[in-house]
Amino acid sequence: MQTVSKEQAVAPFKLAIIDLLDANHYADFFEDKWRYAWLTGGFAPIIEYDIITNLADRIFWALNPEATTQEEWYKDDAGYDVRVYDKNNHCVYKAHEILPKSGAIANEEYAKQFPKNAERLKRLTLLREKASKKLEEIKNKNKDVI
Q1: Disulfide: which of 5, 40, 60, 88 matches 82 by Cβ 3.0-4.6 Å?
Q2: DSSP per residue over 55-82, as a string?
Q3: What number of CA atoms fall less than 13 Å from residue 144's CA on the CB side?
Q4: Is-above-0.85 flag for pTM?
């Protein structure tokens, strides 16, 4: 599905929180209500594109706190995507696109475009490395005991 540009988007906007399996395969249409959640703004619809995309990013990070790259994020179909749709039900924003596509987590271009995300991803990578080392130490210690 092609994302419509910001300039072509028609307010008001709504958010869709989508099960990751469906986000990759079936996000063009919504059938099973239990796989999706719509946030529409109710009596106060959201008409500012920047506000809705910032909200989408925050919800995405809350639902996928360990996501570091798009490749890793969708590898196991575990997680949620957050997308913004306009008045005409065109997808105008996909929150997962703030993640780098692959292992080049903090390349210069990505760091310039998303400085906070790049720093967050660096910290996550370091934490994972520390956790892996600690698990390896525990594993080796248990081998010695047996």
Answers
A1: 60
A2: HHHHHHHHH-TT---HHHHHHTT-SEEE
A3: 6
A4: no
